[in-house]
Amino acid sequence: MLRSRFLALAAFGPILLAVISCSAAHAVAPQVTVNAPNGGEVLTGGDVASVSYTATDDGTITEVRVYYRDDDLAPWTEVARKLSNAGIYAWHVQNTPTPNARVRVWVRDNEGLTADDESDATFVIQQTPGGTVPTTLRDFELPGTQPFGISEPLERVYICMICHAGYDETVEPGHNFMGSMMAHSARDPLFYACLAIAEQDAPSSGDFCIRCHSPGGWMDGRSNPTDASALTLADRDGVACDHCHSMADPVYKPGVSPVEDLPLLQELVQIPTIYGEGQYVVDDALLRRGPFQAPEAQHPWVESPFHREGEICGTCHNVSNPAFERVSGAEYVPGPLDEAPTSMDPSVLLPIERTFSEWGASEYATSGVYAPEFAGNKPDGIVSTCQDCHMHAVEGRGCSSEFAPIRPDLPLHDMTGGNTFVPYLVADLYPDEVEWNELADGIDRARYMLRHAALLDLGVTAVADSFQAEVTITNNTGHKLPTGYPEGRRMWIHLVALDDQDQVLYESGAYDSTSATLGNDPEATVYEAKMGISRSLAPAIGLAPGVSFHFVLNDSLYKDNRIPPRGFTNAAYDDFGGKPVDPTQPGERYPDGAYWDVADYPLPAGTKRVIASVYYQTMSREYAEFLRDENETNDAGQVLYDAWNQFGRSCPELMASDTVDVVPAGVDPAGPVVQSNSAVSGLQAGPNPFRSEVALGLGLNRPAEVRLEVYDVLGRACRSIVQGRLAAGAHRLVWDGQDETGHDAGSGIFWLRLQVDDTVETRRVVRLH
């Protein structure tokens, strides 16, 4: 920076340079002396200590910086910059216990001359007291750009909005970004309530959380104190525009990565080797990066393939607990305390969130999946990267300039997930910082995502004198359904059987909105992940074993029956700690290749109509109460609970539903009717579920008249395929998914009704999008 400024001055000619040289020749360097801590003191991590110094100059001291280190051989760690010459600085002492600490004060004057001084002798930093486990800041030190690793703070979001908002709300980056939870990750009261418990349980763990929820605050040194109390209005910009658009791929790819990335990576003390845990690399230069060439941009710009790939999202959407390491299978044990983890690989550390890994081991990440409902303006309708669904392509300009190109593949900057609840809380708690219309549009987009994330198919069959309902939930996302942070987040099936007077005969998965309580009947199907404390760890930390919301202490996965995506295999998911677990179903919860789940429900004899629905909820009552009741340090849990109570208690969102009238005409719901003299054997339908066509394989014991009919779930005839008289032997009958008029029959449940002479058999099949 100084070099570029002197070069600019040189352009004014030798006279100006002569004046500068003359002035510099008579300048006297400033003087600075550290007064305290100056040796022998005993400080405690987390406390506030006064760094006292004396700085003088014949001109003006324009900047003061403060550093510390925990050993004479260790590099200096910056703790504050751009201070005025007040002679004293209130230092929140880092939780890095050591007997060999020193501080250093650096000053610069108006002539650009500098001086520094350090403690004459070492002093002691004691570990932060309290906590269920004695963690320190070292346990959460990770590779990548570090605090004060960039010379200037990230640009405020409102600066970017000058050009990138206010011209077309449907496609512009500004309006849509400000309706996303990315923009409000540091305004989210759920984050602060959870952070408070984490800090109580494991001191300094908050630093790990802040680095992704407020990267601007973290890089500007305000993650210390680690309880987020130092975060400012600017830090509440969350995952700001300048953060993502200054990020570089930590894995340099010659010929692909911008050449500007290489020197940036070479300057790092530790380069991240994997995508995750908030290990971002941020450019110190005022150089923005993005997925396109943009020669017309009004700021320095470079095209970055990294911004087109899911790996950039993986930076913060793979989250591990670095304090626990895998020893075998699903067993994790505490790693060495007061030191950084030896490996950041997701196959080693305890999983908390694995959205990126789930996607990486799916069909979406390899060949892509046809999903036009998510693909936006992509002409082929194939979605593959995270951005294809969560920043779908639209047509428009990326900025307000009339000279900006109209792109057919402009990424919509909404980064939408499934959170329809917290935006209400953000609007209430920060009315002067947000615009409701932006949040409201974000809620609508989240509801769209939820209503296309799952396909629900309901089938009802006769069983003796009663019925059985079969609900199939198909995952249409590129990760588990649901995914992300597991605590309090869930999806469940609600099923109701009615009689001919529409009176409830049977109900499963009932939700009481008055008490915000989900029923726990024997057939209830709830898709969720539940972590907890193992029997081996419990005595060491003084807590009971079992399911727990203390996420920084949990070392075990007690349940994870969330539905995997297309391309799932148990081996791949086991590798990164994401293999599904269900205590009610020993063995593998899902077979390889499954991206759906089937739940069965016994129904009474008087059933005339069945309604099945699947719901999603951001935050359960149990979790809201836990965060309130367990908080012993601040009011973050109470603030969250009060807002949760005021704004509908995280009202469940309907994702999909289906209704079946019993019994549909034209179809025998009892399934196969096999007679002793039947001409047919070995009847099989597959693939099931299917997309383009399904085949019915059968064997004829003798020549017979064969007729295949297709009915939809309501018993309406879709197709009649008359085969005529077939010879004895094996045959394969195919339905191509079209109705009698040659049009696509759509998706859902269908019945294949096969008539062989006087024998009738039926098979239920499911057609996907």
Automatic annotation (TrEMBL):
Q: Where is the secretion signal located?
A: 1-24
Report the residue ranges that make up the FlgD/Vpr Ig-like domain in this protein. Answer: 694-753
Q: Which UniProt keywords apply?
A: Signal
InterPro entries xref list: FlgD/Vpr_Ig-like (IPR025965), Ig-like_fold (IPR013783), Multihaem_cyt_sf (IPR036280)
**Keyword Transmembrane part of the UniProt annotation:** no
Pfam families tied to this protein: Big_7 (PF17957), FlgD_ig (PF13860)
Q: Which domain of life is it from?
A: Bacteria
Put simply, this protein is called: FlgD/Vpr Ig-like domain-containing protein
Q: Which organism is this protein's natural source? A: Eiseniibacteriota bacterium
